[in-house]
Amino acid sequence: MSWAEIGQRWKVRLAQVDWYLCFGLLFLLLVVLGLSMGAWKLNLVVNDADALPIEAVAIRGERDRTSDEEIQVALQDLMQRSFFSADVNQVQDALEALPWVYQASVRREWPAKLKVYLVEQQVVAHWNGDAWLNIHGQVFDAPTRTDIGPLPLLAGPEGQSKVVLTTYRQVSELLKINGFKLDSLSLSPRHAWHGSLNNGIMLELGREDKMARIQRFINVYPTLVKQSKPVAKVDLRYDTGLAVGWENAQKESQ
């Protein structure tokens, strides 16, 4: 085959090519490459803490037990990220891990600020000696503080904190309107209730009919205080009566 024939064949083939389609595909490829390059460069900028740093964190909400220093320490690693790459969920988790923070909400504010709203734990009782109980009946651990006033001592098995707090509120209210103050309430592993008043009297309430037994104590107390010996303990685990432990008798038995 001569070179002239080869040239003629290529000429025919080239004449059959859809050049509009070819140029269109080439243009599309260039556009995709350009967008990919732009996205890559944008990603570098967005994740560059030097180019788009977080310049400020605005904290709102009432804070009595969470200091600025604690917040700074909790966020120091996350603050090294850029404004866009910082994960607000991680910031929220870091803040909620602080002992006295109950809830945190975080959002970005253009151009370089994080806005944080904190809700602190509202403590209502001591729980099992070294833990705390909040208003929702949830147990949380936090350091001991001297600025918290006297709180009731509540105790019970794991997972029973809400039940104990609810029962404390009910029993305490009934006692309060009758001139008594409940200092502590505990639920044993066998689900028996034990309480103590601020005057030192111990109450054994058993498993059932707690409110009825408290009312029985209230009704009989005026008679008890007329006795010559102070009351140390009242066992109300009876259907119709009660047993009284006298303070002097208990001391003598010891």
UniProtKB/TrEMBL annotation:
Gene Ontology BP annotations: cell septum assembly; FtsZ-dependent cytokinesis
Subcellular location: Cell inner membrane; Membrane
Keywords (A to Z) from UniProt: Cell cycle, Cell division, Cell inner membrane, Cell membrane, Membrane, Transmembrane, Transmembrane helix
One annotated Gene Ontology cellular component of this protein: plasma membrane
InterPro entries linked: Cell_div_FtsQ/DivIB_C, FtsQ, FtsQ_C_sf, POTRA, POTRA_FtsQ_type
Ranges where the POTRA domain occurs: 52-121
Transmembrane segments: 20-40
Membrane topology recorded in Swiss-Prot or TrEMBL: Single-pass type II membrane protein
Function: Essential cell division protein. May link together the upstream cell division proteins, which are predominantly cytoplasmic, with the downstream cell division proteins, which are predominantly periplasmic. May control correct divisome assembly.
Subunit architecture: Part of a complex composed of FtsB, FtsL and FtsQ.
Family named by the database record: Belongs to the FtsQ/DivIB family. FtsQ subfamily.
Name of the protein this chain belongs to: Cell division protein FtsQ
Species of provenance: Shewanella atlantica
Taxonomy of the source species: Bacteria, Pseudomonadati, Pseudomonadota, Gammaproteobacteria, Alteromonadales
